[in-house]
Amino acid sequence: MSYAEADRSAAPHARLRDVLFVLRCSAAATLSILLAQAADLPHPVWAAMSGVIVSQERLGDTQQATIGRFLGTLLGVVIAVLVGVGSRWAHVGTTAEVAIAVALAAIAARRWPLLKVCMWTCPIVFFTSTPGSPIWEVGLLRGAEVLLGGVVGILLHVLAEGVILTFLRLKRR
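-> structure tokens emitted (173 positions)
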């Protein structure tokens, strides 16, 4: 039985929880894009994806996903930047950079599974790089996009939980 099915059978507020899940996921994607565009971030798609990825069924799960997303992204950016700086000095191509960076990230992900997003972050940093842009700047921008979306996702979840608690209080009166 899924969380949604268990909620529907166990709690009278399950329908509200379902509606709020749909609304907050959609709002997280939309608001993340708008904020990333307003901040003039070059790839708002990463903000939207992050906002949706952290949006889980339960608040505790959203908090865990957000922590993993933030720390994993930070680790992936650091790995990509370090590999990028070292490999550019050695004139290594993008494919080799990705191979090295993902291998290092995979070592970390095996040890700390919550941080597995670090493996995805490395190729994202390399493949969104443009000629003439320093790799540290690309990493910083990708990190900012992901962090923005994650913050939006968790804030909307906290807001939705507040709506549910208010609904339950009003229903008891």
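Helices lie at 3-10, 14-38, 44-53, 59-89, 94-111, 117-127, 135-172.
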